[in-house]
Amino acid sequence: MTVASDPSTSLQSLMDVGFKRVGEWKLNRVQADPTIIFELIEEDADAPNVLYAFVAGGEILYIGKSIRTLSTRLAGYQRPGKTQFTNIRSNGKILDLLSQQKSVEIYVLVDTGLLSYGGFHVNLAAGLEDSLIEALRPPWNLTGRTKD
Length: 148
What we know:
Layout: H1 7-16, E1 20-28, E2 35-40, E3 50-56, E4 59-66, H2 70-78, H3 85-99, E5 104-110, E6 116-117, E7 120-121, H4 124-136
Antiparallel strand pairs: 1-2, 1-5, 3-4, 3-5, 6-7
């Protein structure tokens, strides 16, 4: 998969394979220190085996997968544990963008269970994640990069 470096082309390539916008991250200003919360607007956002992406200004920032539901996975970014370094890093980056009044959208591709090989179900999210990250090079994905 070869993709142009134009962020809108990259986002369109996700949509072309079936990703759709299902929600966004928001600032929660109820506490003294703002935190992040997510709002999901699609019913299938709670399906298991999903591939998801965080997008700001049309740029794909991060691509991830989960065997759990999207809302369960996003809760890890919302309230990361002390040893969950990816969640901690992403939480800070999302909070930073939201503090700058930038929108961070959430896109998802749900595994419909239709893909199989030799009679075995192929997890679409697991099979597609590495290829998308390699082709689109989202800046928050550290696979194959040095840590920031």
